């Protein structure tokens, strides 16, 4: 029995205590899947190292995509569920070790995503003026850990920017750089972000693919949006769109590629227009070196061809694209939590295919993963729903067959954190932050302005507590 301290199946009086590490979409969908079932009584702690929930919905989806960001309203319903306790401002590995967390609960679901940038591994990558897309995105979404000084100094005086990569993140960054101040004005970006972008005299943004247009990973809806910018003209070299019959045939079987090619072909007739930013989409060019001494002055690229396996191969022809800002948007990478194995190459937690974490090749009782840390950095927000459900189904099956059990009384996580001087942010506290952001936005006629400093976020919490 639980009362004598021995493990027992979950019951209404002794629900299965589940900690979810990461309150982004994957974590919230995992919480949702746990609350939607009634076979296994559960009590959920949804942890995040930030004082705010929503992960990449808050600090990934571009602020000029308000409709996509509105998914937070749907996600919020899971936070409001009485079985779910949001516990923000808690870093596993700092405020609490993973071993301590595991000792407080019966199961842990890792959903903390993939926060690191992949590297290009070329000379000049660390020059001032060379930024990872993760840095730029963190900055323009007001992430408290953004390196504001570095990003803003890189943006100062920028006329020509190169964005390396042709995924949706590269399009986000290229689009934000090409937007006018008036287009950015209604967003929830922090004011200093809007001001810095408005002050940058960007004339040309080149988005660079190492393979061809048929292999680009951006999606058509996101691509099309570039054609709707107020003061930028999209330019595509018609020569990049001449595909060999094999590639053309393969592209015809891929709906996204077919639609992308149709949009690009339409744009290939565009010519630069005076007073408008040139937003170039270039293909078959892989960066081999970033040039410059004190800061970036250009990108040396090698012209490529795509081989029969779809790989980029160098042709030995080189060219320099002048640039005073380079943003490397070549994918994200998951990082280990202290005490959790993460495969260095894929940046994912080893798991059994469903989401049970493997340690030394064997499922580790009570440990699960979902979202980007499980499957890698791909897919849109909605993909996490199916993924989290799959993981939770594994967890519930383990509870049903008795391999996952409720252990005896344990200290309450929040009490433990408070006792050691941490400041966990609970749902009511988050509501205070939410209200403060809306109030700040209203002072400039916006729906919201993101509070970008940890101190400001916590000040909003403390002010509400003191009232
Ligand atoms: P991604 O789609 O995987 O794109 C990465 C890009 O980097 C690819 O073009 C890739 O080219 C290129 N790349 C990788 N290594 C390179 C190298 N060494 N040199 C040059 N180029 C290199 O990833 P992402 O853009 O970071 O997006 C991550 C996920 O979030 C995606 O699933 C994306 O759709 C999603 N997302 C969605 C939205 C939206 O729906 N609006 C917005 C943002 C992100 P290769 O293909 O040749 O490897």
Protein model, in words:
With 467 residues, the chain is of the alpha/beta class. The protein has 2 domains: 2-115 and 334-425, Rossmann fold, CATH 3.40.50; 117-330, FAD/NAD(P)-binding domain. Helix content is 34%, strand content 19%. The protein is built from 18 helices and 17 strands. The protein has helices at residues 25-35, 55-59, 66-69, 71-79, 98-104, 133-140, 148-155, 168-178, 181-184, 191-199, 220-225, 245-252, 255-267, 372-375, 383-400, 413-419, 427-442, 454-466, and strands at 16-21, 42-47, 84-87, 107-110, 116-117, 130-132, 160-164, 204-208, 232-236, 277-282, 285-291, 298-306, 312-322, 325-328, 332-333, 356-359, 362-369. It has a 6-stranded mixed β-sheet with strand order 3-2-1-4-17-16, with helices on both faces. A 6-stranded parallel β-sheet has the order 6-14-7-8-10-9. It has a 3-stranded antiparallel β-sheet with strand order 11-12-13, with no helix packed on it. The structure holds NADP nicotinamide-adenine-dinucleotide phosphate. NADP nicotinamide-adenine-dinucleotide phosphate (NAP) is lined by residues 120, 164-170, 172, 209-211, 215, 217, 222, 286, 329-332, 377-380.
Radius of gyration: 24 Å
Strand order of the largest sheet: 3-2-1-4-17-16
Full CATH superfamily name of the largest domain? FAD/NAD(P)-binding domain
Question: What is the strand tally?
Answer: 17
**Biggest sheet character:** 6 strands, mixed
Strand content: 15-25%
User: Can you list the ligands bound to this structure?
Assistant: NADP nicotinamide-adenine-dinucleotide phosphate
Shape: globular
By helix and strand content, what is the structural category?
alpha/beta
